[in-house]
């Protein structure tokens, strides 16, 4: 696996694919600079070597050249995070860009305009990738958030740098973290899978079942399992076409000596609303007209015991509808247990869009070992897929 350490960037121009797809407010200010912060170590290492950086990214989903999606809006944010004045060029290919790159000196940073202003980017167009490739001596991929896409700048471009391509620090750390959980883990390994549906996590469950010792199931997917086992789930979220699959998963887990832990009690509500009436009941005895929206206290205690005896933890998906305070206790309780375990030396990896939002919201982000920056990309890695952006560097 080639990383930044395999290169000396002195007098080299590094063309870096970063993920600066950051949220902007109505005044076009960056409201969360996590992704810019995440790319900083790579950029600084190259500058300190005596190289220069050409940063390329997408922002949002523009249909054409739309100023709303211009990366010029983020120049001041990137400048502030890096502590280096960032230059900007209002295109990402062509003679103006090539000239700006030619004038770039060691220690300088140039940000290109939104790659997705060209439909060729998402189409993975080879000619477009070749145009981009003219801008650097070394290609560095540090965009984990888009590593599962075979776009021009994330994968196709790598063929124009047969020797001079590598992973940035962020992407390398993401790969190592997942590897630490799935392949080089200290046992017992516990995976906590929450979120809304079985169908979106099935690929992950199937891939990890042989690799982990415990799977904790939470969130909306609980009720498909409970119903499959003969429980009564009232109006809870359920995927009736996945009942057989749920039983198959339980059987496969048994064959592999993987313990699946299901919630034993639930906080139920008479409406999907923050001012609904609530009560706590056993998960398999939910009355008609009521729905399970969070784990109950007995479940949190039981899950915390499993976590306390784990050495490696993976958490993907909230245990309840954490966006509403009344149904956040399961997710908070689990976060506390993971934070405590991490303090005691356990490796904990949190990933997937909503769990990242939850750990940030409840202040757990710096109490776990690693918070992944990729939602879809992480899920695909957990499903055992080879991501195009990673494969292109390894080839
Ligand atoms: P996912 O994107 O699959 O990780 O799902 C995350 C979403 O699942 C969050 O928005 C939660 O509100 C939702 N969720 C968690 N538990 C439940 C539940 N018991 N019923 C309905 N939705 C849930």
Describe this structure in words.
The model has no long low-confidence stretch (mean pLDDT 96). It is elongated, with a radius of gyration of 23 Å. The protein folds into 2 domains: 4-167, Phosphoglycerate kinase, N-terminal domain (Rossmann fold, 3-Layer(aba) Sandwich); 175-382, Rossmann fold, CATH 3.40.50. Helix content is 34%, strand content 17%. Helix 12 links the parallel strand 16 and strand 17 (370-371). It is built from 14 helices and 17 strands. It has helices spanning 34-49, 75-82, 95-102, 119-123, 126-133, 169-182, 202-208, 222-228, 243-255, 297-308, 329-343, 353-361, 376-382, 388-394, and strands spanning 13-17, 52-56, 86-89, 109-112, 138-141, 165-167, 189-193, 214-217, 232-233, 259-261, 265-269, 278-282, 285-286, 291-295, 312-316, 347-350, 370-371. The longest helix has 16 residues, at 34-49. The strands form 4 sheets. Strands 3-4-2-1-5-6 form a 6-stranded parallel beta sheet, sandwiched between helices. It has a 6-stranded parallel beta sheet with strand order 10-8-7-15-16-17, with helices on both faces. The chain has a 3-stranded antiparallel beta sheet with strand order 12-11-14. It starts with 12 loop residues before the first strand and ends with a helix. It is an alpha/beta fold and 395 residues long. Adenosine monophosphate (AMP) binds at residues 195-197, 200, 219-220, 237, 292-293, 317-318, 320-321, 323, 352, 354.
């Amino acid at each position: 696996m080639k990383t930044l350490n395999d290169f000396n960037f002195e007098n080299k121009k590094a063309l870096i694919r970063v993920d600066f797809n950051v949220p902007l407010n109505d005044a076009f200010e960056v409201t969360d600079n996590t992704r810019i912060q995440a790319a900083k170590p790579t950029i600084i290492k190259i500058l300190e070597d005596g190289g220069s950086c050409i940063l390329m990214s997408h922002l949002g989903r523009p249909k054409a050249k739309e100023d709303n999606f211009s990366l010029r809006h983020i120049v001041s944010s990137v400048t502030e995070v890096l502590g280096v004045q960032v230059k900007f060029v209002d295109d990402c290919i062509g003679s103006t860009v090539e000239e700006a790159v030619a004038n770039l000196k060691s220690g300088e940073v140039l940000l290109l305009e939104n790659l997705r202003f060209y439909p060729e980017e998402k189409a993975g167009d080879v000619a477009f990738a070749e145009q981009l490739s003219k801008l650097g001596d070394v290609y560095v991929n540090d965009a984990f958030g888009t590593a599962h896409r075979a776009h021009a700048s994330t994968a196709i471009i790598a063929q124009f740098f047969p020797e001079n391509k590598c992973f940035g620090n962020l992407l390398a750390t993401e790969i190592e973290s997942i590897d630490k959980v799935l392949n080089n883990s200290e046992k017992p390994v516990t995976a906590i899978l929450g979120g809304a549906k079985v169908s979106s996590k099935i690929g992950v469950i199937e891939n990890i079942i042989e690799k982990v010792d415990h799977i904790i199931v939470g969130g909306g997917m609980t009720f498909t399992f409970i119903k499959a086992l003969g429980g009564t789930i009232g109006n809870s979220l359920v995927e009736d076409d996945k009942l057989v699959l749920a039983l198959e998963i339980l059987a496969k887990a048994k064959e592999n000596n993987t313990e699946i832990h299901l919630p034993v009690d639930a906080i139920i509500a008479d409406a999907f609303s923050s001012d609904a009436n609530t009560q706590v009941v056993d998960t398999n005895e939910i009355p008609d007209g009521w729905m399970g929206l969070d784990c109950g206290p007995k479940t949190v205690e039981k899950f915390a015991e499993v976590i306390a005896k784990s050495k490696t933890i993976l958490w993907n998906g909230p245990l309840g509808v954490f966006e509403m305070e009344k149904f956040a206790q399961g997710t908070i309780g689990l976060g506390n247990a993971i934070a405590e375990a991490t303090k005691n030396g356990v490796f904990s990896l949190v990933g997937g869009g909503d769990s990242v939002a939850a750990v940030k919201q409840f202040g757990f982000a710096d109490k776990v070992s690693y918070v992944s920056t990729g939602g879809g990309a992480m899920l695909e890695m957990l499903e055992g897929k080879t991501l195009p952006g990673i494969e292109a560097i390894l080839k």
